[in-house]
Amino acid sequence: MSGNGDVVLIKDGKRLDGRDFDELRDIKMEVSVLERAAGSAYVEWGKNKVMVGVYGPRELHPKFLQDPTKAMLRCVYNLAPFSVDDRKKPGPDRRSVEISKVTSEALSSVVMLERFPNTVVDVFIEILQADAGTRCAGLTAASLALADAGIPMKDLIASCSAGKIQGQVVVDLMKEEDNFGECDLPMAIIPKKGEVVLLQMDGKLSRDEFKDAYKLAYDGCMKIYDLQRKTLMDSMKKFVGEGGIENGD
Amino acid sequence: MEIEGYLKKDYITNLVKQDKREDARKFDEHRKILVDNDYVKDKAPGSCFVQLGKTKVLAGISIAVGEPFSDRPNDGVMSTSTELRPMASPRFESGPPNDESIEIARVIDRGIREAGAIDTKKLLIEDNLVWIVFIDIHVLDHDGNLIDAGGIAAMSALLNTRLPKYEDGKIIYGEYSGKLPINCVPIPCTTAKIGKNLLVDPSLNEEYAMDARLTVATTDIINAMQKGGTGSFNEEEIMACVDAAFEQGNKIRKMLSTD
Amino acid sequence: MLNVKDRDLIVPGDLLGSDILPDMNCYMEGGNVYSAVEGLVRVDGRKIKVVPSSGGYIPKRDDVVIGVIMDVLTGKWLVDINSPYICAMSGEEVSRDAAKTDLSRYYKVGDILTAKIGSVNEVYSCQLMKPWKIENGLIIDVNPKRVPRVVGKQKSMLNMIREKTGARIIVGQNGKIWIKDGNVDLAVKTIKKIEKYAQTQGLTDQIAEFLDKESRGNPIKPSYHINESED
């Protein structure tokens, strides 16, 4: 967040990519995209491309990490070296460690970990192409992949960000807006309860602006949730034989 | 979790249900804050030892010269790290930073950076040469709420940091050319949620019992936020945390002085 | 009050209704019953459950499973049964004086066996009993949550596949299925089809049709049963 006032981000009441202030980028979602993982999902969110694989519940090593009261949910958020303009050095950095932590905490709020004592559920989030808002896209995909894996959870997690550009509060920042805007507010909610499980913010927001940004991010999350539900419903069509049983496969 | 966690959780949860805290504080009350500036003044150009209740942290500032980032050629650079020293808790181990210490450092960093607390524009020495400000936060005794303790220590240390003399391409240690330019004083305030209750500045035992926490760093506006823990907040609770942060921030800002 | 109908598809967190009895894969909160997984709703009077579309295997008493010996210890074996929890099997299953017997004479590391789960404790440590060694044949993977459909009501589906393919089949509830003899290819194809379309209405009839069509012109060798632990 530089708050660089020289860069024009809003023109004629529209954003650089022609979006309205409360409009999300184009989003595509798919589940069961990986063969070996227990559950998986792929999300395209604007120029973001994110793939998630879930393994487990499986035996947790080393043993001293095992918790006899519940499973551990372990998240790895990884930005691929080629996902950004300047090659990112492979391996975890401070940013990805922090994102992994808050993502796993957000998911732990819904996954029924107490049902699988001593085990681990591994969630691997790969950002293949990054264009701002990757943690929201990653968390959204992770929640789909967990549902796809059949891991019991109280609800899905839907995530979306809001922010401020040129003094205007808007939803779902893309790269230029993230770089030259004044604030970024990634958020994730449990849609059923309407409660927040991930909330981060950096930049400059007054109390009132925060309330507006909160509302935009919240509404964005609800739109994401609708897409998530539709994606999962579509994925189960074969399971109930909708469209008939194809022969030959 | 240490077994302490299992042992204390029920006790604290029940206490909070009766509107009480183990140290008889009100829910919106910080523990006693002791600030000791220039704690290691013979070497570090800025430092501050903070006790937040029984939590003890020492923030030290180091100053170096170096190249600016290519996208901000005229701005000085700041960097924050936190070390959870093994003496501070039986749970901490030597070795590279783990996710907990990285989170603490990054949240403190965001508050200071996004508020523009350090006037980085004034840290240009000459073309392609700027001051680099390192903030190192040493956690020495962990009794909860390391983000607030570390954030207060870092900010207080920065307020009292001197810029070394720079002559003929060298830093002259021990001699100073002036004070580090500071624009404003962002203060983080962490609120824990236990059951339906919100408690400012959780102690370690309260952290064992909490479902979630929300840190809000404020100046006259909000500069950084971070939710932690596996629980959730509704909108009303979030706004309560924001308001508490403004209130606590104002109180604590008044305590921090420049000599 | 029901919020859904029988055979509706749902995702985690969907409200199923209130004042009803939650069965498998549901949870109750504030008097309401919600789904904990994605899958198919089944309503049975006042009882409601969700048939999950996928998921791993968690040991359950009396399940027949297929596993691999991981370790031979004094008086017992450790067996991997494709679940997060390693199973133990007592040497008493094969020898009266297990502590003094070299158990690797019976099962050594890497041996495959089918056995019944005798007991499971609250952290899912379990004991296997009545082992039977599996040799030769093919073992395929099926999502454990879709295995019940491969077996069918009163084993109707399984017996049909056995009959029409002439294959010997042991179904492990842990998602491992052993197939040997007869038309193995057709048996695999059929089982994979059942897995994919698990909750299709009238699946048994459609599978019967498929089997008839596919096995035409392939005379089937008579099938025979091996022992009690089969299926």
Q: Would you kindly provide a brief summary of this structure?
A:
The complex is a heterotrimer of chains A (249), B (259) and C (231). Helix content of chain A is 26%, strand content 31%.
Brief descriptors of the model:
heterotrimer, A: about 250 residues, alpha+beta, Ribosomal Protein S5, domain 2, about 25% helix, globular, B: about 260 residues, 6-stranded mixed sheet, 4-stranded antiparallel sheet, elongated
SSE topology sketch:
The complex is a heterotrimer of chains A (249), B (259) and C (231).
Chain A: E1 10-11, E2 14-15, E3 27-31, E4 39-45, E5 48-59, E6 72-79, H1 94-108, E7 119-129, H2 134-148, E8 158-165, E9 168-171, H3 175-180, E10 183-190, E11 195-205, H4 207-235
Parallel strand pairs in A: 6-7
Antiparallel strand pairs in A: 1-2, 3-4, 4-5, 5-7, 8-9, 8-10, 10-11
Chain B: H1 3-17, E1 33-37, E2 46-52, E3 55-66, E4 77-84, H2 99-115, E5 124-126, E6 129-141, H3 146-159, E7 162-167, E8 170-179, E9 187-194, E10 197-200, H4 204-209, E11 212-218, E12 222-228, H5 235-255
Parallel strand pairs in B: 4-6
Antiparallel strand pairs in B: 1-2, 2-3, 3-6, 5-6, 7-8, 9-10, 9-11, 11-12
Chain C: E1 9-10, E2 15-18, E3 21-22, E4 26-29, E5 32-35, E6 39-44, E7 47-52, E8 64-73, E9 76-80, E10 87-90, E11 112-120, E12 126-134, E13 138-141, H1 147-151, H2 156-165, E14 168-171, E15 176-180, H3 184-196, H4 203-215
Parallel strand pairs in C: 3-7, 10-12
Antiparallel strand pairs in C: 1-6, 2-5, 4-5, 6-7, 8-9, 8-11, 9-10, 11-12, 13-15, 14-15
Architecture per CATH nomenclature, i.e. the level-2 architecture of the largest domain in chain C: 2-Layer Sandwich
**C-alpha Rg of chain A (nearest Å):** 19 Å
- Please tally the β strands of chain C and state the result: 15
What share of residues of chain C is helical? 10-25%
Determine the mean pLDDT of chain C: 91
Any low-confidence stretches of chain A, pLDDT <50, length ≥5? none
Overall morphology of chain A: globular
